[in-house]
């Protein structure tokens, strides 16, 4: 199960990143508040046609194989816009991020917007419904209960959710899915 979800090798083979050529990366989850890598530029941004959802299982960061937590992924939804943070980085940064986000996330090449409406093509980590760690939709109360009960090597799942909610508020982004879950977990 865990090996099947491990995406490090797949991601390293997917995109031929050229030495020294900077790449844009769109972050919509922990990348917004945990930029533990060097970046050249950082700008708020958004990606159209996708929504942020707590539908991916976390066995390695905010849960364990026996009791997975829930973390965000992007899900396609026509007409939707998901706001986050874009980073321009050197290709070496992906060696680190491919390891950090190895539990089912694939790096996809997608267009997104920077805050000044500049459109760029960049990379986005997305956990698709066909990965073994995917949990999918559930009632908000069930998702919140799972988050409240989970913890892993990177800390509690509650902390992940509340830090994301706080980071989105700081960006003046209203994400009803995240806010509803934060309210339930806080209660
Ligand atoms: C992000 O913050 O964009 C992100 C979310 C999940 C996995 C990797 C990155």
UniProtKB/TrEMBL annotation:
It is an enzyme of class 4 (lyase). InterPro entries: ChaC (IPR006840), GGCT-like (IPR013024), GGCT-like_sf (IPR036568). It holds the Pfam family ChaC. One of its GO terms (biological process) is glutathione catabolic process. One of its GO terms (cellular component) is cytoplasm. GO terms for molecular function: glutathione specific gamma-glutamylcyclotransferase activity. PANTHER family: CATION TRANSPORT PROTEIN CHAC-RELATED, GLUTATHIONE-SPECIFIC GAMMA-GLUTAMYLCYCLOTRANSFERASE 2. This is glutathione-specific gamma-glutamylcyclotransferase.
């Amino acid at each position: 199960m865990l090996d099947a979800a491990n995406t490090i090798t797949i991601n390293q083979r997917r995109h031929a990143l050229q030495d020294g050529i900077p790449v844009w990366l769109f972050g919509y989850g922990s990348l917004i508040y945990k930029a533990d890598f060097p970046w050249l530029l950082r700008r708020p941004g958004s990606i159209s046609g996708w929504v942020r959802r707590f539908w991916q299982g976390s066995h390695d960061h905010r849960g364990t194989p026996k009791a997975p937590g829930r973390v965000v992924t992007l899900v396609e939804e026509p007409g939707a816009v998901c706001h986050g943070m874009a980073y321009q980085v050197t290709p070496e940064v992906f060696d680190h991020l491919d390891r950090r986000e190895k539990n089912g996330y694939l790096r996809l090449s997608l267009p997104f917007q920077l805050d000044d409406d500049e459109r760029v093509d960049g990379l986005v980590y997305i956990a698709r419904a066909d990965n073994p760690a995917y949990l999918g939709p559930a009632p908000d109360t069930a998702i919140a209960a799972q988050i409240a009960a989970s913890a892993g090597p990177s800390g509690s799942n509650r902390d992940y959710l509340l830090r994301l909610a706080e980071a989105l508020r700081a960006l003046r982004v209203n994400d009803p899915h995240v806010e509803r879950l934060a309210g339930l977990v806080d209660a």
